[in-house]
Amino acid sequence: MSEKARLKCTVYVGGLDQAVTMQTLAEAFVPFGELVDITLPKPDLPNSNEVHRGFGYVEFDLPEDAKEAIDNMDGSELYGRTIRVAAAKPQKDSNEGLGSKTAIWEQEGYLAKYAVSEEDKQAADETKMADSNGPQDPMQGLEELDVAGPKPE
């Protein structure tokens, strides 16, 4: 099964209590169709006393089953907590977007999308040079104004 097809069959389940186990999720979601896989991501810190991170993924055999589970289980209660059930989104690549370790302008495709013409680059360079000639005095041009209000004619 392709990654895209698997994603259509997978639902995100959020707001889980720490008492929820894979067995609990299996029992809660099996009425909607055959389950392929259940995942409860572990905490990032290994010495944490948490069993899981408060969310999980349930993969169904058919996309229709996943949609049915979303429609029926979103907003329901499990162990006294309201859970959120939605279609799973693809995992972000660690080299793209927010949280990336690479500057956005160094990412592949950025320059192709946002590249500017040579004329624009030259104009920007000229502006930088003009600005770097020294700090501009914000009071420049106000020397002759010794009285507030409009200039007398």
TrEMBL record:
RRM domain sequence ranges: 9-90
Entry GO MF terms: isomerase activity; RNA binding
Pfam families documented for this protein: RRM_1
Name of protein: Putative peptidyl prolyl cis-trans isomerase Cyclophilin
SUPFAM superfamilies in the record: RNA-binding domain, RBD
InterPro entries according to UniProt: Nucleotide-bd_a/b_plait_sf, PPIE_RRM, RBD_domain_sf, RRM_dom
Organism, as annotated: Aspergillus rambellii
Ranges of biased composition (kind: Basic and acidic residues): 116-129
Superkingdom of the organism of origin: Eukaryota
